[in-house]
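Batch job 17 of 40 flagged for manual review because the log was empty.
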Amino acid sequence: MTTELPRLKLGIIADPQYADLDPDPKLDRHFRRSLDKLKAAVEHFNTRSLDAVVVLGDLIDRGFENFGPVLAVLDELHAPRILLPGNHDFLVEPPHLPHIHTTLGMPAPYHEVQLRGLRLVVTDGNEISVFAPPDGDARRVEAEARLAALKAEGAANAQDWNAGISGQQAAWIADRLSTAERNGESVILLGHYPIYPPSDHTLWNAEALASMIASSAASIAYLCGHHHAGNHAEREGVHFVNFCGMVDTEHQNAFAVLSVFDDRIEIEGHGREPSRRLMLAPAKRHKRHMSDNSLTAG
C-alpha cells in the first residue's frame, strides 16, 4: 500500500503583530503573547517535513525594535522561510522605511520563488500606500489620490490601512502567470491583503487582480492575512484563503500547515485557524511531475 505524498507542504502564519505593548481589549489583540505563539508554531513546524514556512505580513504591530525578537524566533525554523510585510510592518520611524524588505530577507518587494515544480508569486500589496513609501515619494502621492477617489465613491475598502499595487507590478504578475501557463506549472500567489470576496479589508486593486488571477489556467490559490477573522472563497476554480491573525485572543494560537496534492489543497489548521479540504477543478490539476526540490528566488 502506497501513501500519497503532497507535491508541496508549507507552514503558514499570518499577522503575529508582536510588540512590547499592553493588550488592546477592544480588538482582543495581545501583542506580547505573540512571541510565545510564534515559538509554539515554530516548534510544531520543526516536527514536520516542510518545504518552507510563509509569514503573510504584519510580523510586528509597530516599532522597528520589535523585529529583532520576532526574527530571532523564526531563526529557529528548520525549513526555509518566505516573509512579506504587511501594513503594520511599516509603522516604524521614517529612516527605517527603506529597509523593511531587506530586514525580512526579501530579494525584492515582489518576486517569485520556484519550489518543487510550483511557482510561489510574492506580491507587494503595500507598494502604493500612505505608509510604506517615504514622505514625498511619488507612490505616496498616488496613494493619497487613489484613497481620496475611493472615499468619494463610498468604497468599503477606502481605508488608510489598505493599499494598492502599481500597473508595473500588475503587468509583472500577468507575465509570471503567462509563463507558468506556457510551462504547465501551478501558481500560488502570496499577499498581505485579501482580494476576494470584496470587503473593507481588500486591496485597493482587488477586483482587477482577483479577475486576473481567477482567469489564469495556472493559478490554484491566493493566500493572505490582514483580515484577522479569516475567510475562504472560490472563484473560477481558484481558492482565495485568508488566514486568521495570530495576535488575536490571549491564549488561542492561529497557524496552519498547507499541503498541495495533484487534485486538492489540504489545510491543517491549529488553534483558531480552521482545517479545510479544497478540491482543485480538473483544469487546475497538476499534469507535470517535476523532481526539483530546491527553493529558488527569481
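Reviewer: the log was empty due to a logging misconfiguration, but the result itself is present. The chain is about 25% helix and 20% strand. Unflagging and moving on to job 18.
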